[in-house]
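Could you please consider the sequence and fold following this short note?
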Amino acid sequence: MLIVPIVVALTALLLLLTRFVQPELIYSVRKGLVMIGANKVFIEKEAGRDNVEARYKQLLIHDARYETRTYDEIFILQDRIVKITELYRLLDPSRALATAQETQVCIVELGYLLANLGRTIQTDPENNEAVIKASALLKHIANSVRASQDEEPIKNDEEIDTWFIDNPITIEQVIELLIAAVVALAHRRQSARDRAATIPSERVDAWSEIRRLEKALRLFVRTRLRDKYKTDDAIYGRVAEYLGPAVYSDSLRRMESARKRLPDVTLDFFEYLYLGQLETLIFREWDSLFRTVFEEKLWLKTRLEKIISVRNDEAHSRPVDIDDRKVVIGHCSEIRKRIERHR
């Protein structure tokens, strides 16, 4: 009866000794893995298949890590993507020497990269742009394939599902889609770091700060109204009541005009509201939704009026005093901080 506990205890002791007393054992295992990678490169060269990208050779010989670890965006773009795409080339089932390889491992590795990036990506109202629908991406893939075969493009979105059932998407295309997602998220994270590192202490670009505030306010007002009114019909009914039929109809008209130009893009009505209209919605729902956020109505009103004045001048290319720009930048930052504090 004591055998099992003794074995468990000895195993735990062995692991502790390996970890803290004999760490060279861990490095010897890694050295063995590196030797396997080096031998593979040598075998490829001897067999006349030495067309492997140089960066991949370096990764293969000097790196035994898994894609499940977290890396920064530069490492992902320069190393991991290269390694995975070269891995797929080596496992390509169309090659005679690799017919039994499981090429879906590349999809799994890219999935790990996406998971790591997804855990660190933060929501940002500034990046609340229009969304290209998944169906539009799939239609583009299908039509690109059909064009290569001299076939007519698919015009009806409802045909996309049928086409992909009859023509299953290839592993190569799935890999390209995942690579696009990984690269795009890595660039987004790099962009956020670059902005944080390069914002000068005395910035006078008021327009970009006003645009950031507009996006943050649109998202925040919409979210607060949805919390209260629940359904789109109720929200838009209240917005039409507060803004008046003329202003509401004008916003709808601009949104519909954009929809005709961009049929595959998901549009949000609130993206077509100006700062002054958002101000109206905020003050009409002040007591129930926004007092706890901004605290003082006069505080918010004076700041929004100054921001709107400078925005109108900027939009019509009228000169704006540098001191006014600095004041507006400060106002935008103060309002966004209260939004973020509430969120």
Remarks:
- The first strand starts at residue 131 and ends at 132.
- Residues 1-64 form one domain.
